[in-house]
Amino acid sequence: MSQSGTGEAAVRILRKYTNRRLYDTSRSCYVTLEDVKQLVLSGEKFQVQDSKTGNDLTRNILLQIISEQEAEGHGTLLTNQVLQQLIRFYGDSMQGMMSQYLEQSIAAFLEHQDRIREQMQTMMGAANPLTMMGRFADQNMAVWNMFAPRGSEATEEEQTADASAKTEATQETAKTGDSTKAASSSKSSKT
What we know:
Blueprint: E1 12-16, E2 22-24, E3 29-31, H1 33-42, E4 46-50, H2 58-71, H3 80-89, H4 95-126, H5 129-146, H6 156-176, H7 179-190
Parallel strand pairs: 1-4
Antiparallel strand pairs: 1-2, 2-3
Helix pairs in contact: 1-2, 5-6
């Protein structure tokens, strides 16, 4: 493992031999493409070098990993149309600009990934029928409380506590998804 004087983390060196095997020089053992994929996923810096020439083969190995991922059928990231468009950029005057654009787009996506996940969860929660039913129940209780007779024996605090207890029961029923309890309790309250 080599370490530069600028304080950068050491780069793990993998050597590729003519028999297509990869050798991890830091662990003194052979590794598979799956092991290299785990290095990528863990964010560890590495470089793949040809054992004879010392040429950097990292891109080739990464492309091989992507090819295997695409072939496994876990949902393609690179559709045929995207690949064809990428091929068309090779040799084009815009090739360098396209490379920078892709890098910056992916970097921006990764920066906003957590925020996007939160927004998706919020949208999914808003579309949840049980959540919507709970909100409607709260709104209905508020309307009913506005029309409650003022001269009744119950104080406003008692009415609020009663409405709060009913709302909590409605939410609990919505959480458990037990619609039969809600139906039977509403029938019994009407009688």
